[in-house]
Amino acid sequence: MEEAREPDNQQVLRVLEALKQASKDIKNKPSLLKTDCNSSAINVLLELENEPGNILSDDPNLSNLSNHLTSLRILVDKLRRSQGHSLQSFLRRRVSNHEISKVAGTIENEIQAWIDRVIVEKLVTTLQVSSVEEDENVKLLTQFENRVSQGFNRDLQNLILKSKVFSRLESVLCNPKFSKRIREQSALAIDALVRFNKDVFVDQVLMSPTIRVLISMASNFSIQVLCSLIKLIKSPLVDEIEANGEIPKLLSFLNAEDWSLRIAAMDCILDIAYFGRKEAIEAMLEEGLIQKLVELQMSELGGDLIEMDRFSENETSGVCVGGVEMESKGRKEKKEMRFLENHPFASCVARFAVHLDVGEGLRQSERRAFKQEILKKVKEACVSDAEAATIVAEVLWGSSP
After folding, report:
1. What's the domain of life for this entry (predicted)?
2. C-alpha distances in angstroms, 62 versus 21, 57, 104, 117, 236?
3. Cα separation, 59 vs 109, whole angstroms
């Protein structure tokens, strides 16, 4: 988009955002035209097409909007003349309301399409200019992410594909010349695209270096985005991580100096346990995962949930009737969540075993075999029989036989 048009587009953008809201209000409740006929936004919307030098005359992409505004004004005038109390007047108002709602919806869509075009064009153009300030890049990326997060829209998808937005976001994510903040916001935009339409954008993620780059960035934020993508794409993405030999790198984050990165890595490992197939789980166990988890469970942010659960049971003993029992269970779950917020590695070995046991990636026979292997490795990793007994009990108690 040309620099000379930027100020005008920003001004038009603000006007059209207000007009879009007015169109939405009319579409959802045409009666507003009678009860709130003095609304400034609605009046501007109805009179816009008649204004000399109005914003519609400067942009060919808004030519259809002018025709729709003319239709809307005619329908509104017709509605306002239908003031009688006869059945015929009532029916005319019903028909007019339906037609007004339909035209207002079309106007809303036309305005949104223009806004989408401006957002996408501005994003692609700006990301290609290295001299643009970081705040401006982040603002545009956030704006795009928010728009895509509103849900699927076919016209918007066609615009995104035509403008090759994914490739632009990918190149920014992979380019260390961009700041960490811009690269992380690009990762969020990619995640939003996958949520927008998995059928289209999952393959682009799997065929791109996105996953490798997120892992190589080695930040709390990048691993959180990776976790989100694992939840969206599931086993195919875990397969890609394992095939690219990234499992050892992920497990190394459990030893990072940054505790927030350790916590993000733990969440990622639990997601892999839930969605991963046999090869991914084997790769984690061969890299000494259980030893690392035992060490984390014994750390200051570790602990175990068995004692907390026993305390909860003692605290609510004798309460076992209907809604009271459910309320007690709810309090127990909230207590556990609060405990895990302060002790993110509490019972992490058992939690890993549970994710394997209830996950989607393994056969029942594989689950049983891995459970036995986990128990064996726990006994090898623990420095005392008491430690081993506690963790073994948690694994046996926390996952089904």
Report:
1. Eukaryota
2. 17, 8, 15, 11, 43
3. 16
